[in-house]
User: Fold this.
Amino acid sequence: MIDIGLNLTSSQFAGEQPELVARARAAGVEALILTGTDLAGSRESAGLAARWPGYCFSTAGVHPHDAKSVDAATLPALRELAALPQVVAIGECGLDYNRDFSPRPVQDAVFDAQLALAAELGMPVFLHCRDAHARFIEILRPWLPKLPGAVLHCFTGSDEELDECLALGLHIGVTGWLCDE
Assistant:
């Protein structure tokens, strides 16, 4: 078992990362992939992953909630992070039209830019989609042939939307939503 979406940079885990990694190993988890959700978090995730080489890995990306924070320096910085051996995917990127913490046109543009970066670098993507399925697929579809893989980590859609995602070859993450009422 591999945990592919661990938010080990969350303040709720401050100072507890070594213990959490040890507990995961003891429980039989074979690897951890730490999620980058903005530039600072992507840097922090890569730094933490470097502490446990071969066991911890990370992603580098900007979550749709943080798309409004992207500036001209963000994509080049993500490109630099992606060159690190512990960084294995671009993301968490995608669209979240549920909360709209970033304007939708900004989310769209930042998502497309991260897909372009992943395609350029030949890296898989770690994806997020909430209440934006049609637009998400519209942006993603042209990039899929250029990507080595894609995991839709945050999926909250319908059965029909799931079928479409699976038909496109997306892997669907099993998330904490399973525990919600």
User: Anything to note?
Assistant: Strands lie at 2-6, 31-34, 56-60, 87-96, 125-130, 150-155, 171-172.
